[in-house]
């Protein structure tokens, strides 16, 4: 299926590894020019090189990088200095630490809100009007399945990402929808990423189990009996970015292998 995205420009955040990388790869393979942003320059360049290696020699799409912390004003300014107009924006930031809410103060909460709510809003604010003026735009926020089914140890993420979800629900249904701009959230469950493996290692250290045993227990709770891959997550992101998904907006799409047991 041709997703009709060739020649578009996409900004993909947190793109060096994991789900952000999967989105960047899928878009580049569809002919989208991608600007990948992440903090660690070496890891980012490795991720970009891996994507370029999957493209045909005559593939026209550009894969550029910008090693910056997108959660800071300076980081965003560096991105806008390279390019200010994007047809697609994929917001993504690493989840805040797990723990007990009794141990968190204002500083911890503000870091979580800044990275997982305010930064996506700043990126949307900087790009959405240009998208509307050109008659096409796609904004995808990578949030978490915890927005749908909160997890007690992920209080920082539950709160910050739910705030973004509420904001997006209103904006997506404003006048921009009639101007060809859609905004949707992707809610990943357990995907085979560094973040998931880090959580397994943390749980193993606390329970005395092996990392393999913790992972196996988690896997059993997923009807698909496996963890998702960044590539299949990226494929869904690419579809939502295409004109073929133009009638989908303001939605929270749960991608968890069936782990959420609710009907709605």
Helix content: 40-55%
Q: Mean pLDDT across all residues, rounded?
A: 93
Silhouette: globular
**Which range does the strand content fall in?**
5-15%
Please state the structural category: alpha/beta
The termini sit apart by 29 Å
- Count every beta strand, where a strand is a DSSP E run of 2 or more residues: 7
Give the strand line-up of the largest sheet. Answer: 3-2-1-4-5-6-7
The arrangement of helices and strands along the chain is EHEHEHEHEHEHHHE
Work out the helix count: 8
Radius of gyration: 18 Å
Model regions low in confidence, pLDDT < 50 over at least 5 residues: none
**Main sheet: strands, sense, barrel:** 7 strands, parallel
Briefly, what is this?
The protein is built from 8 helices and 7 strands. The protein has 264 residues and is of the alpha/beta class.
């Amino acid at each position: 299926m041709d997703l009709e995205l060739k020649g578009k420009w996409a900004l993909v955040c947190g793109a060096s590894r994991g789900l952000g990388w999967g989105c960047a790869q899928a878009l580049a393979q569809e002919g989208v020019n991608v600007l990948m942003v992440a903090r660690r320059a070496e890891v980012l360049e490795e991720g970009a090189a891996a994507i370029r290696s999957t493209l045909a020699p005559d593939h026209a799409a550009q894969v550029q990088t910008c090693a910056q912390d997108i959660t800071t004003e300076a980081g965003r300014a560096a991105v806008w200095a390279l390019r200010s107009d994007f047809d697609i924006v994929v917001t993504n930031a690493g989840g805040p630490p797990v723990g007990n809410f009794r141990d968190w103060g204002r500083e911890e909460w503000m870091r979580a809100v800044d990275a997982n709510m305010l930064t996506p809003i700043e990126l949307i604010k900087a790009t959405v009007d240009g998208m509307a003026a050109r008659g096409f735009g796609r904004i995808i926020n990578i949030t978490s399945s915890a927005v749908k089914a909160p997890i007690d140890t992920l209080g920082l993420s539950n709160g910050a990402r739910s705030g973004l979800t509420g904001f997006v629900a209103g904006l997506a249904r404003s006048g921009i929808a009639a101007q060809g701009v859609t905004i949707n959230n992707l809610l990943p469950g357990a995907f085979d990423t560094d973040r998931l493996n880090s959580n397994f290692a943390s749980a193993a250290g606390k329970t005395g189990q092996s990392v393999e045993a913790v992972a196996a227990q988690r896997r059993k709770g997923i009807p698909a009996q496996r963890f998702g891959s960044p590539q299949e997550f990226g494929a869904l992101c690419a579809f939502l970015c295409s004109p073929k998904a133009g009638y989908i907006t303001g939605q929270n799409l749960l991608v968890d292998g069936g782990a959420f047991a609710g009907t709605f």
